[in-house]
Amino acid sequence: MERRTFLKLIGTGMAGAAGKTLIAPGKARAEGNAADGKEFFGVLVDTTRCIGCRRCEKACAEVNNLPIPANISDKSVFEKPRTTSETQWTVVNRYATDKGIVFVKGQCMHCNQPACASACLVKAMKKTKTGPVTWDTNCLGCRYCMVSCPFDIPKFEHQEAIPKLQKCSFCAPRLKEGKFPGCVEVCPREALLFGARREIIQEANRRIYKNPDNYVPYIFGEREVGGTEWVYISSVPFEQIGFRNDLGITPYPEYTKGFLYAVPFILLLWPTILLGISRATKKDEKP
Questions:
Q1: How far apart are CA 287 and CA 264, in angstroms?
Q2: Is 278 exposed, middle or buried, given 0-12, 13-18 or 19+ CB atoms closer than 10 A?
Q3: Which of 154, 242, 254, 278 is the most buried (most CB within 10 A)?
Q4: Architecture of the CATH domain 1-287
């Protein structure tokens, strides 16, 4: 967001109102305007509050039945930036910036108009009504979702006999039960704020406006690639903490929509061809 745009929003009163359905861990259930499917859920990540404790990594593993990090107090993991993997859906990285050390949590951004879901030929990757982008087992294994994702998030289980695509699901099953995402629930500094997306953006604007010396006047994820459900605020320019600055604001599906609709072969026949190849390959692999 450019400074003049930000100040315009302040002038209209958008940033002055703290969201009524914003939720702090342990104080309420995952309810609010987004619960009825009319708005997306979102999470505000305030990188000025993150202390690098990695409790979010452990909680993510526990609630999703993933391998538990052996020692979350191990600081050696910060020696170089890490990416998410098929067995770790969220990671915390450490960056040396103009204002000192900054810790940043990374996971699937859950785009408003996800490129992965648009690229999926059988709709195994899909956008849900409340915001999470989820994966289903009818996947063909084409991995188009991997190459289409601007954040390099979906990961393929190459070593498994029956491989799956793995990524953060925004704890979609927990949201249906009225619970928090696991990472939000355990954050000791409330660096993660859960609520309706519209209201977490209002809260981000409010924090920036009230503390201009503590934040750059920009909300990452508000408009990138059409907007994401996870949005970030920072004390330093985002390129200093590992974010791309070349994504633009156009949703990625817009780049391919015209081409796909112009070529019915891709839309109608390609899934059938891939399914046939998949079955033939599995048949050939049998002893």
A1: 38
A2: middle
A3: 154
A4: 2-Layer Sandwich (3.30)
